[in-house]
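Sequence in, structure out. Go.
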Amino acid sequence: MPRLGAGTAWSRLRGRSRRSRRSTKHAETAGDVSLFTAFIVDDFAVVVRWVVIVVVATLLIVLSAFAAIVEVALLVLLVLVGILTRFLLDRPWTIEATPDDGEALKWQATGWRSSAERLSQVATLLESGITPPPDAPAS
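Output:
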């Protein structure tokens, strides 16, 4: 089995213990730390850090996906409310056409079916070269 760098496992443990004794954050307990304790504490801290990183990253991904779903649901709800208020309040739909000369023509139609009929009438007249007057009654 290949070795992991220079020295033996025992020399690496001894060096880790010496570094922890020299460290200022372990200064008050430097005499009480054994090689085994230093090895366990360092590895435990690494594991805890990785667990925290994975949990936080997962939460961020889940929360951002949840926020996107809520945003799309609100958008769909607002569109449905807008369409329903058009029907319930009997507001007219506006049909617009812009010929080549640039002057916009507008027609009003109340209701879904009547606006669809009006739209097809205007389209048929415009395709045949006749410009219907704005807000002219349906023929």
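Check: The two ends are 93 Å apart (CA to CA). The longest helix spans residues 35-88.
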